[in-house]
C-alpha cells in the first residue's frame, strides 16, 4: 500500500477539484528539510487525519496551509483556484479556520467575546456606527453574540459564556477555542491536536463532535491520539521526516508496513501522550 | 389613553405584561434609566450625570478650582485616548505629549486667522491624527521596548521643531493664544440659569468639559463595540487574532490614529486654557504624566483615565499646600509633589495593579456581596471587557 501516495483523492466526486490541495510543497529551515515534496488533497466533508512521529512535519504542513509558513516550492489551491501568497488573515474569507495547539484564547476577553471575535467576519456595522453607538452597531453586537452563543452551545460550553479563560478548566478552554473556530462557519477546519491534554470522556465527546462537523465541513485532524484518529478519520496521511509515507483509509494505513516502521520504537512514547495530561 | 391601558390589563399571550400597577409607565422609565438596556443608553446616562456634576462644580467652586477643572478636562481627553491605545490595544506610547503639541500649535496658528475656536481645535485634532497615521504605521511593526523608544524619540524630538521654525512657531517663547470671549448666547443662557455672567475662566472650563464629555462618550461607544473587542484580541494573541481574520496592522494603526486625535483635541484645549503654546509646555514630562495617569487609573479603563487624570492634576497642589502648612519652605514643599507622585505610582503597582478603577470595582463588588445574593455576580477582569456584554449577562 505504499503506492497509495499517488492515489487520486477519495472524496469530492470524479472530476471535481479538491476542496483544498497542497502540491509538492517543500519547506527548508537551513539545512533541515521540514517538508519534502508533500502533497495533500482534501475532499469535501472529509475527515482527514495527519499523523506521524514527532518532528515529522505535521505542524509545518499546517502552517503552510494557513499562510504562516511560505513554502520554498510547491503550490496551494482552494477548490481549484491557486492561492499565490496566502496570508493568515485571508483564511476566514476562504472559508478556512484553524485551532491552535494548546489553547490560544484571548485572556482579557470572556468566553463569549472570544467566540464573537471568531464570528467577526459576519459583522455589518462600520467604524462610524461603532463610534456613535448607532443602533446598527448594537444590532451587530447582538447578532454576533447570538452566533457565538450557539457555537458555545454546540461544543457544550454555553454555561461559561461570561467567564474569562483563566477561570476555566483546560478542557473547557479547548472547547471555547473550538467554538471560536466553528463560529466562522468554515468549510475547512484544521484542528491542531484537539485531544491534547484531554481525558477519555472528553475525547469521546470530541470524536462525536468531529463526526457531526463533518456533515458540513472538511475536517483536518493533526493528532497524536491514535484511537481518536482511527475512529473518526475517513482518510489518513502519514508523514515521516517531512515525507508522505502513506495515504489511505485507517485500516489500510494501520496495516502499512512503512507506517509501522516509522512508529516502531515510538510505541511507548505515544502511550504517554495519549493519556490524560 | 384608556384604550391602551385597558389593552394592557387584558393578558395577551404574545405580549409581555407590565409588571406593576397602571402607573408603572413612570417606574418603567425610571427602571430604564437606572438600568439602560443598551451600551448606548448606559453611555448617554453617564454623559448626562457627568454633565450635571460638572455644571454644579463649575458654578459652585472658586475660579482657581474652575481653572483646575479645565486642566483636568484636557488631561482626561488625552488619557482617555492613551488608555485605549495602551490598555485596550497594548501599544505603549511615550510620545503623546508631542501629539498634544501638534494639536496645540495648530490651534494657536489658526485662531488668529479668525477661525472659530472649535474649528481650530478640530483641525488641530485632524493634524495630530495625520501624524498619528505616520507614527502608527511605524508603531504597528514595533513591539514593547522598541515602540517605547520610538515614541520617546517623538516626545523629545517634535517640540524641537518649534525652535527650528522659530519664525512661524515662536521658538522658545512659543505662541500666545487669544482666548475666545463667551459669546452673547452663552452669556445669556448662563445668566438665565444661574443669575450671573459667566467668567472667561468658566467659559473655557465649559469648553474643556464639553470636549472631554464628548470624547469619553465616543470612546465608550468604541470600547463596547466590535472595535474594543478586536483591539483587545489583537493585544492578547496576535496569531489567534489573525486566524480570526483580523488585520493586525490596520487595527493597530486605527487605534493609534484614534488615540492621536484625542491627544490633538487635548492639545487644542490646553492651548486655550493656558493661553500659550511653547516647547516647555510639551516636554517629555507631559508624556510621562499621561502614561502615569493611565497606569494609576487602571489600564484600559475610561473611568480609570478620569481618576488617574484627577490624581495628576489635584495631587501636586494638594501635597505642596500641605507641605507649606507643615512649615516647609516653598522649595521644599514643591519637592514633595514629585515624591508623592512616584510614591503613588509604586503603591498602585504593588497594591492595585489594575489601578484606581480596579480598586473601586473590587470595593464595589465586596459591598454588593455583603448586601446579599440576587444583585448579580461581582464583575471580574477588565471593566471594558465586562461591560461589553452586559445585555447578554442579564439574560443568563
From TrEMBL, chain A:
MF GO annotations: ATP binding; ATP hydrolysis activity
InterPro entries for the chain: AAA+_ATPase (IPR003593), ABC_AA/LPS_Transport (IPR051120), ABC_transporter-like_ATP-bd (IPR003439), BCA_ABC_TP_C (IPR032823), P-loop_NTPase (IPR027417)
Annotated ABC transporter domain residues: 20-266
Keyword ATP-binding annotated: yes
Keywords noted in UniProt: ATP-binding, Nucleotide-binding, Transport
Pfam family for this entry, one: ABC_tran
Domain of life of the native organism: Bacteria
Keyword Iron-sulfur: no
Cellular compartments per GO CC: plasma membrane
PANTHER family recorded: ABC TRANSPORTER ATP-BINDING PROTEIN, CONSERVED COMPONENT OF ABC TRANSPORTER FOR NATURAL AMINO ACIDS-RELATED
Protein name (record): Branched-chain amino acid transport system ATP-binding protein
Organism listed in the record: Actinomycetospora cinnamomea
TrEMBL record, chain B:
Topology of the protein relative to the lipid bilayer: Multi-pass membrane protein
Main subcellular location: membrane
GO CC terms, sorted: plasma membrane
Positions of the UniProt region annotated as Disordered: 1-25, 367-396
GO MF, any single term: branched-chain amino acid transmembrane transporter activity
Keywords assigned by UniProt, alphabetized: Cell membrane, Membrane, Transmembrane, Transmembrane helix
Protein name as annotated: Branched-chain amino acid transport system permease protein
Transmembrane feature ranges: 44-62, 74-94, 114-139, 146-166, 203-222, 253-274, 280-299, 306-327, 339-360
Localisation: Cell membrane
Ranges of compositional bias, category Basic and acidic residues: 380-396
Amino acid at each position: 500500500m505504499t503506492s497509495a501516495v499517488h492515489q487520486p483523492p477519495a472524496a469530492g466526486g470524479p472530476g471535481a477539484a479538491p476542496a483544498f490541495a497542497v502540491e509538492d510543497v517543500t519547506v527548508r529551515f537551513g539545512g533541515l528539510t521540514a517538508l519534502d515534496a508533500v502533497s495533500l488533497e482534501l475532499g469535501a466533508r472529509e475527515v482527514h487525519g495527519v499523523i506521524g512521529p514527532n518532528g515529522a512535519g505535521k505542524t509545518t504542513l499546517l502552517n503552510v496551509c494557513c499562510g504562516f509558513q511560505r513554502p520554498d516550492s510547491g503550490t496551494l489551491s482552494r477548490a481549484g483556484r491557486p492561492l499565490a501568497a496566502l496570508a493568515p488573515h485571508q483564511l476566514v474569507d476562504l472559508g478556512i479556520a484553524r485551532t491552535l495547539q494548546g489553547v490560544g484564547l484571548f485572556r482579557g476577553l470572556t468566553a463569549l467575546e472570544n467566540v464573537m471575535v471568531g464570528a467577526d467576519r459576519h459583522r455589518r456595522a462600520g467604524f462610524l456606527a461603532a463610534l456613535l453607538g448607532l443602533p446598527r452597531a448594537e444590532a451587530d453586537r447582538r447578532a454576533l453574540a447570538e452566533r457565538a452563543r450557539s457555537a458555545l452551545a454546540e461544543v457544550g460550553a454555553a454555561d461559561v459564556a461570561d467567564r474569562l479563560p483563566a477561570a476555566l478548566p483546560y478542557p473547557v478552554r479547548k472547547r471555547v477555542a473550538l467554538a471560536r473556530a466553528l463560529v466562522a462557519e468554515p468549510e475547512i477546519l484544521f484542528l491542531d491536536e484537539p485531544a491534547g491534554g484531554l481525558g477519555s470522556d472528553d475525547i469521546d465527546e470530541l470524536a462525536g463532535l468531529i463526526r457531526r462537523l463533518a456533515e458540513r465541513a472538511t475536517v483536518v485532524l493533526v493528532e497524536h491520539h491514535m484511537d481518536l484518529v482511527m475512529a473518526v478519520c475517513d482518510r489518513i496521511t502519514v508523514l515521516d521526516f517531512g515525507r508522505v509515507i502513506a495515504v489511505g483509509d485507517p485500516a489500510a494505513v494501520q496495516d502499512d508496513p512503512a507506517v509501522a516502521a516509522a512508529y516502531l520504537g515510538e510505541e511507548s512514547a505515544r502511550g504517554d501522550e495519549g493519556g490524560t495530561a | 389613553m384608556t384604550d391602551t391601558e385597558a389593552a394592557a390589563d387584558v393578558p395577551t399571550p404574545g405580549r409581555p405584561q407590565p409588571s406593576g400597577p397602571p402607573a408603572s409607565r413612570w417606574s418603567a422609565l425610571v427602571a430604564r434609566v437606572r438600568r439602560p438596556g443598551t451600551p448606548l443608553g448606559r453611555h448617554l446616562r453617564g454623559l448626562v450625570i457627568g454633565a450635571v456634576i460638572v455644571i454644579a462644580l463649575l458654578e459652585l467652586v472658586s475660579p482657581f478650582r474652575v481653572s483646575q477643572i479645565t486642566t483636568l478636562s484636557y488631561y482626561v481627553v488625552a488619557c482617555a485616548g492613551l488608555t485605549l491605545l495602551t490598555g485596550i490595544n497594548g501599544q505603549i506610547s511615550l510620545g503623546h505629549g508631542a501629539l498634544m503639541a501638534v494639536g496645540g500649535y495648530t490651534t494657536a496658528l489658526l485662531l488668529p486667522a479668525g477661525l472659530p475656536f472649535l474649528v481650530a481645535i478640530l483641525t488641530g485634532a485632524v493634524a495630530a491624527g495625520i501624524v498619528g497615521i505616520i507614527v502608527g504605521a511605524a508603531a504597528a511593526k514595533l513591539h514593547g521596548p522598541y515602540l517605547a523608544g520610538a515614541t520617546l524619540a517623538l516626545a523629545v524630538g517634535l517640540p524641537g521643531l518649534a525652535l527650528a521654525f522659530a519664525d512661524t512657531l515662536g521658538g522658545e517663547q512659543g505662541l500666545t493664544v487669544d482666548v475666545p470671549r463667551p459669546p452673547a448666547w452663552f452669556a445669556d443662557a448662563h445668566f438665565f440659569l444661574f443669575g450671573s455672567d459667566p467668567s472667561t475662566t468658566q467659559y473655557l472650563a465649559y469648553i474643556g468639559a464639553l470636549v472631554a464629555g464628548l470624547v469619553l462618550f465616543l470612546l465608550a461607544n468604541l470600547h463596547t463595540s466590535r472595535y474594543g473587542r478586536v483591539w483587545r484580541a489583537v493585544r492578547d494573541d496576535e496569531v489567534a487574532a489573525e486566524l480570526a481574520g483580523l488585520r493586525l496592522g490596520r487595527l493597530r494603526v486605527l487605534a493609534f490614529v484614534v488615540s492621536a486625535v484625542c491627544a490633538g483635541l487635548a492639545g487644542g484645549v490646553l492651548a486655550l486654557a493656558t493661553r500659550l503654546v511653547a516647547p516647555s509646555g510639551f516636554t517629555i514630562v507631559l508624556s510621562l504624566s499621561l502614561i502615569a495617569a493611565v497606569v494609576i487609573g487602571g489600564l484600559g479603563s475610561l473611568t480609570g483615565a478620569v481618576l488617574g487624570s484627577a490624581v495628576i492634576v489635584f495631587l501636586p497642589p494638594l501635597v505642596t499646600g500641605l507641605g507649606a502648612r507643615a512649615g516647609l519652605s516653598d522649595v521644599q514643599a514643591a519637592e514633595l509633589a514629585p515624591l508623592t507622585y512616584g510614591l503613588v505610582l509604586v503603591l498602585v503597582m504593588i497594591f492595585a495593579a489594575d489601578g484606581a478603577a480596579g480598586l473601586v470595582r473590587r470595593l464595589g463588588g465586596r459591598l454588593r456581596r455583603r448586601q446579599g445574593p440576587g444583585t448579580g455576580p461581582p464583575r471580574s477582569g477588565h471593566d471594558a471587557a465586562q461591560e461589553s456584554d452586559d445585555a447578554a449577562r442579564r439574560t443568563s
